[in-house]
Amino acid sequence: MSTVETFTWLALLLPLAGAVINGVGFRVWKGKTAGVIGTFFLFAAFACAVVAAIKLKSLPHEAQHATSVAWDYAATLGIDAQLSLLIDPLALYMTLVVTGVSALIHLYSVAYMTSDEGYVRFFAYLNFFVFSMLVLVLAGNFLILIVGWAFVGAASYMLISFWYRRTTATNAGIKAFVINVLGDVGLVLGTYFIFKGTGSLDFLTTFKEIEEGAAFATENDGDLVAGCLLLLVGAFAKSAQVPLHTWLPDAMEGPTPVSSLIHAATMVTAGVYLIARMWPLFEQAPAAANVGAIIGCATLFIAATIALTQTDLKRVIAYSTMSQIGYMVMAVCSGAYVAGLFHLMTHAFFKALLFMAAGSIIAAMANVQNLDKMGGFRRSMPFTYGCFIVGGLALSGIPPFSGFFSKDEILAYTAARGDWHVALAVIGYVAAFMTAVYTFRLIFRAFWGDPVKEAQELEAGHMAHGEHVNPANGEPEDTHVGFPGPEHHIAERAPEMKGAMGVLAVLATIAGVLQIPFVTHWVDTFLEPTFEGSFYFEDLHPSDSLTIAGMVIGASLGLAGIALAYRLWVQKPGTTAALIERFRPLYSLSFHKWWFDELIDAIIVRPAAWVGRVCDQQVERILINGVLTGGTTGLVKSASAAVRGVQSGFLRYYAAAFALGTVAVTFYFLVA
Amino acid sequence: MTLHLSIMLWLPAAFALLGALLPGKLPGRIAILGSLLTLAYAVVYVVDFDTGKDGLQYLTDEAWIEALGINYKLGIDGLNLFLILLTALLWFGATLWANLKEWEHARTFFLWLGIGETAVLGALLAQDLALFVVFFDLMLVPFFFITVGWGGKDRVPAVTKLVIYTLVGSLLMLTAAVATGVLAAEGTGNPVDFDLSVIQASGLSEGSQKWIFLFFAAAFLVKMPAVPLHGWLPDGYSAMPLPALALFSGVLSKVAAYGFLRISLPLFPDAAADFQELMLILALVSILYGSVMAFSQTNARLILGYSSIAQLGFITLGIFAIEGTGAQGAILQSVNHGLVTLPAMFILALLAARAGGSEDIRDMGGIAFKAPVLAVFFVITTFALLAMPGSSNFVGEFLILLGVFKTQMAIAIIASIGVVLASVYALRLFIRAMHNRVGADVDSRDLSLADGVILVPVVLLIIAFGLYPQLALERGEKATAAVVAPARAILGEPTGNYGLAEEEAEAAAEEPAGAAPQIDPTTGQPIDPATGQTADPSAQGAPPAGGELIYVDPTSGQQVAPGTPGAIAIDPATGQPVEDPAAGAVNEVTP
């Protein structure tokens, strides 16, 4: 086993080891031990990933993709699945992002979760999640990919339902899980269609067959398009793209570090990774890629409009996540692979940071997430405020913060495709304006204005302790689960939280230097071996003037958005009420989240429940039990009336009828 | 080393009889010993099994009732190897479980339990049709008595229903079995012989195959059960004591599925091919109806009961894909589902003990809080039950759906709805029992040591099997390929092994022209070089109407003009090389 392979396997298995050690010793670990264990294994995994990446990049180009096999997994009649990893620059890029951000979020959680009864359980789950995510990004074939895909879904479910005595949390959990299973099924069926053409589940073999024209030689081959569209179903379910997104806002029921890690930085970007990984397929099936680009664009727009009016702090950031992933999906479906993956990384930094800062506020508010009840935290939490500003500027695409470079690269490359892709880019710019508005709406409403009671207390040196109720529905809360408890932390006071947020704030500020137009191309260079041979990677480049124009427009729109937010919520706080009255239908559309939940409820959930009732009460009772069973019983009873004359008891029926039947039948065939 | 199958077969019954003579707690302990020894035997068979060998291993073949042509013939191959292991394992687990409880008339109880194991093993091992029928019917008897003697309320009507259903099924099967033996002998003029290989070699006319197939199918589908023949299930499941129910649902239902593979596909290939769509649709209905019912129930037993209808539907689907991958998936899934059923039923008992004796999920809730270890094992079982990727259940389902996808794409796509529904009912059961607010009469506590001894090893096995399903797959490969071959040849389809088709076509192309075809040692029929399976020669040799063939140069793989020297004719419909009328000498298929 080469060094690269060894260190990659280590990076994969260390988080699993952390999960097992935490899980098995859950009665043993006291205080912060579990958190320290979990965090240690994550930093170790990150170190291994760094070593693996450095070693890999020292190899010649063609040696930079290799499949590392552990053993035969399901290699039997007609299929060839092994337990294998595909180690290439893209896989290691994802491994670096996942382990790096995860390590910081683990560090943050060490303090944040301290008073929770489920402290050890939390770290076992969180470690298991990272392991699952690494299985997903390192998988060497479709079957293992699906395994990782489902594992992250399961980890996500367990963490959403972490406070499992809240019915809101368990409902959100099952919703997320079922939609994710729907995505898994899409992935499985997509795999079948692709397998039908290539005859292999292995990634490298599949790509080779397609590049050499041995399979799916014609462009937009029906099976390939079907396969790619089904892969997109999987990607959309996981990455919360319209219309499979409704689970993501509800997933905010989970503890805030979970929202930060899983529902912002890592898991939800899996769809983007999948599409980039499958570029040879999507380039041969442009029809499917176009569908993906359009859905991505629709999502980025719809989510941005919803984020404008929501009042739950975390849900606003969740819709923002959805919107940003829409940008990435649009990018990778338009051939701008590097731009999409670059944004994936910068977004992981600034979005994780925003959630951590939000977590700090929520802790200060004693678990209340409603924006209407917040205000004036600027003075009491200067560090959190600073982090929120950095994250907000990066999200709004203000230079020189990282989000500016990555988002503009996406839009410039999308526009460079020409034709109708230009319209997508224009919508992207419009949404970028809205992004700045909703981001700074959050900042102004939470941090500016008069300090609320909690902020005043904090200034006086006290932490708020709320009521023992679930803030989401007012249900009385069990004291053991789901409440931040007597000892809870905000970033200002906990060095672990401060440290993690500080690092992310620096990264969110400077990560743009990796890929500054005309200056640096480090992400390009790193990922080059993965995308070698790609038409778009090699030939799609925006012209210099387009690049510059894009940057100017992007920066201006971001600043304009901030200015508008400042006017609406700082200078003239009353204006929004008048605007709501004036644009009531538009406001309703946004406030009711475009009625997606109601729609899905009406066309899927309720009909399914109705079918269940009909089956249970009509079909089963009348047809199966009444007609079929009743009929048969009557028949047998009358047929055995003669036997019953002699003896009674059901087993005697059985024995007698059995014997009689045997004799009769045997006699018939032997004699006749 | 010779491993006599008779020893393993009669061990459980012998120990049960021994136990019946002893007083106090001894019968239960003796039963544990008996099932443990049987399990040891089963493990030895799995380890010792020769993966590379065709046909039956560890064969025992004696004439039993010579006058009627009935043989005492037992054997193991890839079809039953893991089902035997499953049977032994589950019986051991259930016997341990039964020992945790005080039973009235414990001697009789354990006697029935032991006889039940022997009967199931007999049905799995039998290589003679009459012997199979005898064991198949015998295996139900202990369960009738256990339900009547030790069951819950309303057990008498429940058992009456069960008896009537199985009675009808058994009579049909009996008739069909006798007819099979007699008609097969009539066809060849030999004396009646119920040996499966003899019947397969003689063959039956297509007309008789049809009704016989349907008779067998009825018996098997009742036993599984499949919709709409499941009328006995709600009452039967409610009445049976849980350790017995775990066996009934985990093992006995699989014997029926196994019956399709062992009896129906090889003996009645024409009928299997004819009724393929009917069976697929029945399976599909079972999957969807079972799943919908499962998420509409509040009684945890019935949730598991209807879910097993859905799971058995998947297994039937895999079998009637009539294709190697699907059949492999069906065998694997049979083992997987059995392996999940035991812990699921066991957990159900633990939940009821914590919810004031109620098995209704409305009376449960919040049990996880004081039972974290139980919660962990329950959640793993739940994930396996809903066939989460990473579990062996997923591999089974993946293979089944892939098999069906190759033959009937639409059915595979509709069936995959069942996968989503499974996540709904399985997770709903878990959440309603373990999470949410604490139920009114819930008094939660964690696993006891004795509970752990039963639950933990099985769940660890589920995990281990999820990491290495290949263990079962590679042992099943040869037998499944052989068992689907006759019906597949009648369907006249290509092997459908997309992956291997091209390589095999290449390999076939490289074979020197005119080479003598290989002969399958068991059936004496030529082996199709492109499939590696024996094929009906009449199904293969005849080329389609002239001009439709594609000619390929064997060295370059390029398509060439007809009549090019050395070119090989390929039938575009099947992708297989065929006899070329234009250049017959070049690519002769020697009879």
TrEMBL record, chain A:
Keywords tagged on the record: Membrane, Transmembrane, Transmembrane helix
Q: Does the keyword Isomerase apply?
A: no
Matches recorded under InterPro entries: NADHpl_OxRdtase_5_subgr (IPR018393), ND/Mrp_TM (IPR001750), NU5C-like (IPR003945), Proton_antipo_N (IPR001516)
What does the record say about its membrane topology? Multi-pass membrane protein
Q: Which residues form the NADH:quinone oxidoreductase/Mrp antiporter transmembrane domain?
A: 139-432
Using the record's annotation, list all stretches that form the NADH-Ubiquinone oxidoreductase (complex I) chain 5 N-terminal domain: 79-123
Q: Which residues cross the membrane?
A: 6-26, 33-54, 90-110, 122-140, 146-164, 176-195, 291-313, 325-346, 352-371, 383-402, 422-444, 503-523, 546-566, 653-671
Compartments annotated for it: namely: Endomembrane system; Membrane
State whether keyword Transmembrane applies.
Answer: yes
Q: Which residues form a coiled coil?
A: none
Name this polypeptide is given: NADH-quinone oxidoreductase subunit L
Report the source organism.
Svornostia abyssi
Classification lineage: Bacteria, Bacillati, Actinomycetota, Thermoleophilia, Solirubrobacterales
Q: Which gene encodes it?
A: nuoL
Automatic annotation (TrEMBL), chain B:
Q: What is the lineage of its organism?
A: Bacteria, Bacillati, Actinomycetota, Thermoleophilia, Solirubrobacterales
In its UniProt entry, what is this protein called?
A: NADH-quinone oxidoreductase subunit M
Q: Which residues form the NADH:quinone oxidoreductase/Mrp antiporter transmembrane domain?
A: 126-421
Transmembrane stretches, by residue range? 6-23, 30-47, 78-97, 109-126, 132-150, 162-185, 211-233, 245-265, 277-295, 302-322, 334-355, 367-388, 408-427, 448-468
Q: Specify the species.
A: Svornostia abyssi
Enzyme class, one word?
Answer: oxidoreductase
The record's annotation in PANTHER family points to: NADH-UBIQUINONE OXIDOREDUCTASE CHAIN 4
**Keywords from the UniProt entry:** Membrane, Oxidoreductase, Transmembrane, Transmembrane helix
Query: Where is region (Disordered) located?
Result: 502-591
**Compositional bias per record (Polar residues), positions renumbered to this chain:** 520-537
Does this entry carry the keyword Membrane? Answer: yes
Q: Where in the cell is it found?
A: Endomembrane system; Membrane
> EC number(s)?
1.6.5.-
A Gene Ontology MF term for this entry? oxidoreductase activity
